[in-house]
Amino acid sequence: MTKTLLTPPVADLNIQEMLAMRRSLATVATAQHIDFFDTVGSDPFTIESVSRQFSMSLRASEAMIAVLNSLKLSIPQDDGSFVLSDESKTYLMKDSPFYRMNLLGDDDPVFSQHRDAFAADDKPVDPFAVDLGNLDSEVVEKFMKRMHMLTLPTAAALGKLPAFGSIKKLLDVGGGSGSLSIGVATHNPNTQITILDLEPVCEIAKRNIEEYGFSDRIGTLPGSMFEPLPKGYDGILFGNIFHDWDLETCKKLAKSSFEALEPGGTICIQEMILWPKKDGPLAVAAFSVGMLVHELGKQFTQAELEGILGGAGFIDVQVTPSFGHYSLVTAQKPA
User: Fold this and answer.
1) Given this model, what pLDDT does residue 249 score?
2) Domain coordinates of the chain in residue numbers?
């Protein structure tokens, strides 16, 4: 008996918030460890100044500040700078009578991992997606199973969005377990889909596709997203891909998509989007810290994604909330 993809009755926002708190606490403890609060004091600071002052990459600096902003431990200013909140000055500065010393102990494994990540010169300390081709098959299997569990709740909601209704041939780049393709296929019976991913991942996707009865409409294509993308598609989907990679790589993926798409075709990017002032949502800010630990990227703001797509030649960028913190960003290749 084949499975039917269901839409969850509620989003997992509270669970995401709980997971975010774990990373957030480790991030604040890391800021304590480097004397961030005492060093910046009452002075305004920026992502760039923190990067210089603490010998931290811009990506790490942004991730730390976004978490602090989301926790209201720092406050965005109109000029693009940030200042510590009264709560930070009261409880996280050493000269305060209410100073909270050592939010996490040195032996805490999450703190240790995050402390290393913020000091790692912009290299992941525990890589997954960016090193997938070099991982042991058992590790790949476990990683993809975990990703499938995380993305499946969003899949049906994504597939219901109007953007997919007009797409006849969709290329799901880095489609992983196939969850998002299954979601699109469930609600768009006239869409043919191809998942492009590494060969071991394609084998995992095939099993999931068969379970849901879509082997006739979803195929797999072993390959690399960093090679020229195959042509003949009027839609290209990147689900949870851009956040794994640095800005220049994302620009290359967007340009490659523009060149591969049919005239009038649509690029679709499923991501959790950071607010314009980089002050939330907390779950999204904390996910950037996760990218610092495991990958090469971060969560983008809408303006940053618009810049990436516009620079590649796309027009008419639209952002549609899809599920929980996720949104679908679409743009068109001129006809």
Assistant:
1) 98
2) 13-118, 129-277+294-332
